[in-house]
Amino acid sequence: MDVALVAVIGALIGVFNAKKRGGNRKDMAQYAAVFAIIFALGGLLLSLVVTRIVGV
Fold first, then answer.
1. Structural domains of the chain, count
2. For the chain, which end, N or C, has fewer CB atoms within 10 Å of the first or last residue's CB respectively?
3. How many CB atoms within 10 Å of residue 1?
4. What is the pLDDT of residues 6-56, one digit of tens each?
């Protein structure tokens, strides 16, 4: 699993979430950054677990 791809998906979800709540550009940027970090950490953890299980 590519961690960068998961981070981009998280950023997009953050932007749409902020836009839905009526936020301005700064709110959208902050939501994008936070969601990208959270999703990237989750993707990294998932990648490590899968690598350990598969053993590649």
1. 1
2. C
3. 12
4. 999 999 999 999 999 999 999 999 999 999 999 999 999 999 999 999 987
